[in-house]
Amino acid sequence: MASSPSVPQAQQPQAQPLDPATRRSQRRKAAVASTIGTTIEWYDFFLYGTAAALVFPAVFFPGESALAGTLASFSTLFVGFAARPVGAAIFGQMGDRIGRKAALIATLSLMGSATALMGVLPGYDTIGPWAPILLVVLRIVQGIGVGGEWGGSVLMSMEWGSRKRHGFMASLPQLGVPIGLLLSTGAVKIMTATVGTDAFDAWGWRVPFLASVILIAIGFYVRLAVLETPAFARVRQQNTVVKQPVLEVIKTQPRAILASAFIRMAEQAPFYLFITFVLAYGTEELGLTRGSLLNDTLIAAAIGFFTVPFFGYLSDIVGRRRVYAVGVVGTAAFAFPTTVC
Fold first, then answer.
1. What's the average model confidence in pLDDT over 38-54?
2. N or C: which end of the chain has fewer CB within 10 A?
3. DSSP 3-state assignment of 7?
């Protein structure tokens, strides 16, 4: 395995042993920082999905029919997913080369700036075709940011944890999913109730996007207090960082990459159907109220707040494969009654 060019000793993080109190403190800080970071990232990501279902067809694709506008809006949602592997490659390599902390601060900046700019982006009636074009560009930036954030946060939390609790520690950043979903859905619900549906569709939807700036400031404050993990410091000190980490893992672990990607499909596909597509389908086709659907989303997110760390803890006891297999089978079984309802 090729190593990187020699780094001056004075610039290398020193893998000095930490006393137990410091290690416990950093472990807590890493868990909190990772969870807050992913919360912000997923707040932004889910907020976009909600807006894509409820608002964006009229704001950015007003010349289309209701169906075509919704399809066009969801196509912009897709580009964010297409950009996530790019972000994972860019910031994964950055994390291996210069540190997890620097990479995670960069992803937070990228994601937050894109979301805030969406909050001030003029609609189609103001700047014409440039509105959806710029929306797509910002969505790509969002996708790149969350692609780097997701794996980096899990890695930082896990590396600070003990080997016996890797599953539990890695599950803590996953709490950002239900918390981010709670916050984004709650923000939409509160704004809708405060200003009314018409005002929300006209301008109120921008407020939750702009409010992400506050969350970003909190994320920066927390993350700056976290040290690099001892595992990364040892790698840098021993000068064993490979020149091209992404190419190296593709070359040496192709089967694991493909297996993980396909397994994740069973989780990701139904999840996003229920937090984005169902909002549009339920309101436009089934005649359900927006408020009731948002309430259902809030309940699901609240349940996930407890189940995510529980199954992470359980994986430390019975193994990752068993826990994930049960989840995949349960998701598959759930698909059948869903299609009937």
1. 81
2. C
3. coil
- Identify the burial level of 231 via C-beta atoms within 10 angstroms of its C-beta, where 0-12 means exposed, 13-18 middle and 19 or more buried: middle
Whether residue 227 has pLDDT greater than 70 = yes
- The mean pLDDT value for 231-238 works out to 72
Determine the residue type at 287.
G
Amino acid found at 175: L
> What pLDDT score does 174 carry?
83
Does residue 9 fall inside a structural domain? no
**Cα(178)–Cα(297) distance, rounded to whole angstroms?**
10
- Cα separation, 154 vs 61, whole angstroms: 37
CA–CA gap between residue 21 and residue 24 (Å, rounded): 5
Average pLDDT score over the chain: 80
Q: Which tokens hold the place of 329?
A: 């089978």
Could you tell me if 290 and 66 are in contact, meaning their C-beta atoms sit under 8 angstroms apart? no
Residue 232 belongs to a domain: yes
- For the chain, how many structural domains are there in total? 1
Q: What is the CATH number of the domain that holds 61?
A: 1.20.1250.20
Q: Is the pLDDT of residue 215 over 90?
A: no
Give the torsion sign (CA, 269, 330, 254, 164). positive
**Residue 290 pLDDT exceeds 90:** no
Flag whether 87 is in a domain.
yes
Range of the domain at 310: 19-340
Helix, strand, coil: what percent of the chain each, to 5?
85, 0, 15
pLDDT at 153: 78
CA-based end-to-end distance of the chain? 54
Q: Does residue 5 form part of some domain?
A: no
* Residue 268 token pair: 């990701």
Torsion sign over Cα 121, 147, 260, 255 = positive
What letter does residue 239 receive in the DSSP assignment?
T
pLDDT value at position 334?
78
Q: How confident is the model at residue 150 (pLDDT cuts 50, 70, 90)?
A: confident
Which one-letter amino acid corresponds to residue 95? G
